[in-house]
């Protein structure tokens, strides 16, 4: 049993992206969080910079003058609070393979590296080691919410849910479903539709028994991708998701060879998206990873169904899959978040994903003409929105996390950048705060840009989920 929370007033500079492209900066502010981890008040532009004086005055104003703790943001001139990151697509089971690609592309990478590793996680001792490391690593990088793919093994998938609950990370945990003899290894697949469905049901029931309200961890239906599942399994999973009001995660349009395989296996469907739609798997609670080669008709269908797309730029580059036209998706009204896609992606950092999202959008602009060249580029503010509230919207959590607003939950990270002194030395060893350097003349917008482009986990000093401290970098 976790200890109860206390009312807490957080002070300092608060920065968030409540809407796409808009970076709101609250200098010298205060945010009050109650015993349930809910933001009760947001106070902006306080004149007195002394933390104790500010906190006392705010506490009196809101009737919190008895029993509220105070947490000030950092020690340097370049410290700020930022919402926790939301990773909309990560394979926790693949963490040991991060950075290993060879010269492969998607389908042969699965056969050579991924399936053998995932099959080893039938062992509880192996799974415990991998999943503990995965959750601790993502928390250390500021990820407060993650949509996890586990493996086909129900028992160790449940272990991942236990670890998320123990360490305090908000998570969606999915038992991977794959039963196709045609595309799945004989030693790593469910032997029947019934076996796969039973495995997922076991995970759903287990997670709901541990977290009945879904306040921290929720189950998520996880067909690996359409080619890995038989048509009866897709139908059964769609029925389960709709009958039990469950979230869904899967892959779509990641690789051209994959698309050719999909057309071969599902000739009766008009498109990849239509497969999921026809089996009840394209809903307002569906997150589709990648979406690089979606047609206009598929985009319209995804918009109609209210599904979201997880943009995974690091993985797409590493496996040579392609570049997702994120601007087009956003302009068509599609919900878009960011995913690390470990281990297709070699980093579990959503900050790295945000950086790469900006980079690949600029690369895509090189192939455009006229106004199109600049239009497709994603700004820093837009990428950080995708990393927070955009991702939360994909997971149907945009009303709860991803911004600093009254009524939302305190999922936050304390960020500290490196202040360079007038004499050329630094406030704190450079190894402690990384390469995100501030020279004293930067605006807050410029500091945030430096953080996105040059920051890493060394800048993430503390992480909170639902008001609870879940990570501190000493």
Total count of strands: 19
General form: globular
Distance between the termini: 25 Å
Uncertain residue segments: none
Sheet bearing the most strands, described? 9 strands, parallel
- Compute the gyration radius: what is it? 22 Å
Tell me the β content.
Answer: 15-25%
Structure notes:
- By secondary structure, the chain is of the alpha/beta class.
- Helix content is 38%, strand content 22%.
- The chain contains 16 helices and 19 strands.
- Strands 6, 7, 8, 9, 10, 11, 12, 13 and 14 form a 9-stranded parallel sheet that branches. It has a 4-stranded mixed sheet with strand order 3-2-1-4.
- α12 packs across α14.
- The longest helix is centred in the middle third of the chain and has 18 residues.
- The model has no long low-confidence stretch (mean pLDDT 95).
Question: How are the elements arranged and paired?
Answer:
Layout: E1 8-19, E2 22-33, E3 39-43, H1 51-61, E4 69-72, E5 79-83, E6 85-91, H2 106-120, H3 124-140, E7 143-149, H4 154-167, E8 170-174, E9 176-177, H5 193-210, E10 217-223, H6 231-244, E11 247-252, H7 256-265, H8 272-278, E12 286-290, H9 296-305, E13 308-311, H10 313-318, H11 326-331, E14 335-338, H12 350-365, H13 371-375, H14 380-394, E15 412-416, E16 418-419, H15 430-433, E17 437-438, H16 444-454, E18 460-465, E19 468-472
Helix pairs in contact: 3-4, 4-5, 5-6, 8-9, 12-14
